[in-house]
# Entry
Amino acid sequence: MIQKLHEKGLRSEHAYTAALLSIGLSIAAWATSLRAEPGAGLDRADRWGIFVGEWAPTLFGLGLALSHYEQHDGTLTTGEREIYRETERRAG
# Structure
């Protein structure tokens, strides 16, 4: 599946960006629901925020899988490879 996504043009940085955006969208969904539906209360706003917030771990995981594939496939650029190695070195 990861190979197919990579062949279609999806890269690890796309998944990481989507994950970060989903965190922002989660906060926005919570705030919007809280303001737009004052009668529904905090519970509904929390559910909207959590629903969208659950996307982030999946997208980060997809980013990691794509990054791993790119590292072994040789499609990382020199700069990306250096960042990846530095990150691995720091992680231990």
Observations:
- The two ends are 28 Å apart (CA to CA).
- The chain has a mean pLDDT of 85.
- The chain has one domain: 11-91.
